[in-house]
């Protein structure tokens, strides 16, 4: 049985500060809040522990053409939260690594057409790694991009569903730490896709390692339909 066990008001901020994700940004194992100023592009972290604000840090300012596209572990450093932004003018995907409430590094993943929109970040392929899922607004197709060490390591089509079905979220079983993609690692994701009522949801779920001649740019600009 799921019940609410408590609640409280953390603080108030101006309405120009918009939600930009929750992650472990200070390395203490708690979930921290990331807000963004819709007027200036400023990014502010609020550290939270025991239902209280324990600290705050300003990350910097990023152009308003960069939109939030998820928080996940894209570096492979256990327990750390990284920010993924996307340029709404050219489709570039940029990772911002965050450590101890500071920007620790940045990496350009590549570019993907603007008809592919953010659908979620989920652990689809490997334990401890975060994968990016995009959806084509014209066809309903889903594409997963596996990310490790700030790079695209593989990509696979998840199939497509009708555009009358809107995304309600992703859930994926956690695979063993020593295993790569397997039926178990995507079982709940397949069930969720099947629940959409679309066809081909279970196709090409398992990804393969990339050859040395495969570029990230190719992966991002030519997603499988």
What does this structure look like?
The protein is mostly beta strands and 225 residues long. The chain has 2 helices and 12 strands, in the order E-E-E-E-E-E-E-E-E-E-E-E-H-H. The chain has 2 domains: 15-111, no CATH class; 112-220, no CATH class. Helix content is 7%, strand content 41%. A 4-stranded antiparallel beta sheet has the order 1-2-3-4, with no helix packed on it. A 4-stranded antiparallel beta sheet has the order 5-6-7-8. Mean pLDDT is 75; it is low at 174-219 and 221-225.
User: N-to-C terminal Cα separation, in Å?
Assistant: 41 Å
Number of domains: 2
β content, as a range?
35-45%
Specify the biggest β-sheet.
4 strands, antiparallel
Supply Rg: 18 Å
Binned, the helix content reads: under 10%
Would you count the extended β strands for me?
A: 12
Structural shape: globular
Strand order of the largest sheet: 1-2-3-4
